[in-house]
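Record format v2
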Amino acid sequence: MRLYIGLDVGRTIRGALIDELGAILLQRKVVSEVRSADTFLNQIVDVILRLKAEAHGPVTAAGIGWPGLVNQHANRLEATPNQIDLSSLEPYRRLREAAGLPVLFDNDANAGAYGEWRCGIAQGFSNVLYVAFGTGIGGALILGGELQRGCRGFAGEFGHFKIEVTGLECGCGSSGCLETLASGPNIVRRVRERLFSDPAFSVSQLAQDMEGTLTLERIVRAATEADELGLSVLRETAVYLGMALASAVNLLNVEMVVVGGGVMAAGELLLGPLREETMRRTIAPAAGCCRIVAGELGRDAGIVGAAMFARDANR
Amino acid sequence: MRLYIGLDVGRTIRGALIDELGAILLQRKVVSEVRSADTFLNQIVDVILRLKAEAHGPVTAAGIGWPGLVNQHANRLEATPNQIDLSSLEPYRRLREAAGLPVLFDNDANAGAYGEWRCGIAQGFSNVLYVAFGTGIGGALILGGELQRGCRGFAGEFGHFKIEVTGLECGCGSSGCLETLASGPNIVRRVRERLFSDPAFSVSQLAQDMEGTLTLERIVRAATEADELGLSVLRETAVYLGMALASAVNLLNVEMVVVGGGVMAAGELLLGPLREETMRRTIAPAAGCCRIVAGELGRDAGIVGAAMFARDANR
């Protein structure tokens, strides 16, 4: 059986040795060194070489999912807003030469979608929207039985749906984007603002964390323990995400929305209200043929998908 | 050369005899009789039979573009919110039998998009968003070189993008939809509200029309003549439409947006600000590879597209 390497490059570099059916044989990860582009690139090479060395057999190819805009035809990173800029280092050439393997670049959300479509919950479906809610908000489209990348490979940028006519400025240059309210760091910001502005929330278990240690994980745990502030901010988040999802389901008429990404650690606490809000705001016949589900591969969707990209391009 | 009939069914039933290259040979239209479903259906039959009788040769097939949700696989009208309900009359069976021709149903925006794609400005492009701004706001997607209808044929419902967290209720059951602000009738409503609420606009040439005769055509004419109120409402409309278009271009990474529909009678007065607003709010690399253009076929896009659907299904 042929072997492939899949990588998901974010704040953590996660890599795995994966067989041609998508089974993960071995995983390696390292926290990204984001202060030096050169070191960062060497870390990626390192993960690939370690997996290659530990494989019981030759590795055929590697796939890498990157956050940001990836020109997949040219294996070029066009914009990686939440990440160190590698463009001056010719990352594609360097990685390919150092790894001694065919290497393929794609967007991380495309990789997550491809993982769930080839090996996860979306197997057999032809019209699927994949959304990843995390530090950023990404997405990918499968329509007509094909992963649709658009004309340059940038398709799927779901985080920059405008949900307010006048809203907060966004890193993308626009304002009122979904990401300014519903990404992981912005959920934390909203909790912090509520703690400052509303004395009623001084009883929240999150009040003790407001001096800098507040994290999304902490908020989700509080919500799980029925903390009113945690619950209220997650419900509000579901409203924002649901607005944008309803718009997308109306536009695409997909039969499945697969939801992944770190924010989904909140599980049904977020997915329940999100499903309800989305369905309530979607045109009835389109809502009636669409299911909203959590991904089956969890955090591994991206590495499995990246490996499956490498497989399908190098059979 | 084979002959086809294309129909666009709205407040007017417009039909044409069209050759296999998309040239219009003959047009017929009639104002829809919306008080009786039976009469309405007979009007459609009538237009088809007249065109068939006047053709210098046999007609191969007919295509019909309907407003609303059309299940194109089943030739079934699932929801026609702005139109009389024909579902109890088995319109497909009746039209096919009365016309004595293969008949094909699709959504009117799909037909418009197909017209522009096969015979108009979008020829040769593989990733195109078509939007029609009129009494309602519709759309259609061409991605990866295919018209994408989604899992049931409902794809393209661009008018129900949510652009406000709390907004006006919409006929679709949701609120904050683009259509509640930017459709033809809602543009008229906004002008009327401004005239009532802001005394500064009593100098507007539209002030004399506020007692019921105000129309979109009148507003566009006022704007053309530099009327402040007309211009201001068109600019505001461009902001709403641009927000939703930017979201869609971010999601789809199309290389072209073709804008059609009755509201586009405003021409560059609307298209200019719309283009600017959309580009400003789209992620730069995606904006950089996308053109926003007016359709080339104008009001004929839908009838040409419907005929081309009939051609491509009955070669």
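Chain B touches chain A through 54 residues (CB under 8 Å).
The mean pLDDT of chain B is 93.
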